[in-house]
Specification:
5 strands, globular, two-stranded antiparallel sheet, about 170 residues, alpha+beta, about 15% strand, three-stranded mixed sheet
């Protein structure tokens, strides 16, 4: 019991450190979004029971932007990890697609979708709240999507929206 709680406390501290380091002072730089997502996918560790999940990077390789590399990497990684934890049951097949479009306002819209379990309507209103998790008591901190929300709205000056249907994906 002590070891489990110590591990949970350590995980929570790591999540909080990651949240504060996302506010680092490095400069925006020119990026190829396709290559950045490919880099995240190459370094992604997927548990054996999620090997049937296909992840497609559908971003135009010509799409360039000026932004913060580590923040976008964290967002993409966190969204994938969240899907793997919540959207797909172990040993189930599934698909995650990541695409992007350049909008008229010279901004980029990153579109992330999975065909997993979906999110219940009541939970959709809370997923971006700090410490909210559907896996309470299973070692999850509930800071992942809060961190994504904070970086998108803060450092990147953007917006994030969620659309989900049960059994239809997110």
């Amino acid at each position: 019991l002590i070891e489990r709680n110590a591990r949970r406390a350590s995980d929570l501290i790591q999540d909080l450190k990651q949240l504060t380091s996302a506010n680092s002072q490095h400069e925006a730089q020119p990026l190829c979004l396709f290559e950045l997502v490919e880099h995240v996918l190459q370094h992604l560790t997927i548990a054996q029971h999620h090997r049937l999940i296909q992840i497609d990077n559908r971003i135009d390789p010509q799409l360039k932007l000026i932004s913060y590399r580590s923040e976008i990497e964290m967002i993409v990684n966190q969204l994938i990890q969240n899907s793997l934890l919540h959207a797909f049951s172990p040993n189930a097949a599934g698909k995650i697609e990541i695409s992007a479009i350049q909008t008229a306002e010279q901004a980029v819209m990153l579109i992330y979708q999975d065909n997993g379990a979906g999110i219940e309507p009541a939970a959709q209103k809370r997923v971006f709240e700090p410490f909210y998790t559907s896996q309470l008591g299973r070692g999850r901190s509930g800071l992942g999507l809060y961190q994504v929300y904070s970086v998108v709205h803060g450092r990147l000056g953007g917006e994030i929206t969620l659309s989900s249907e049960l059994a239809q994906g997110t």
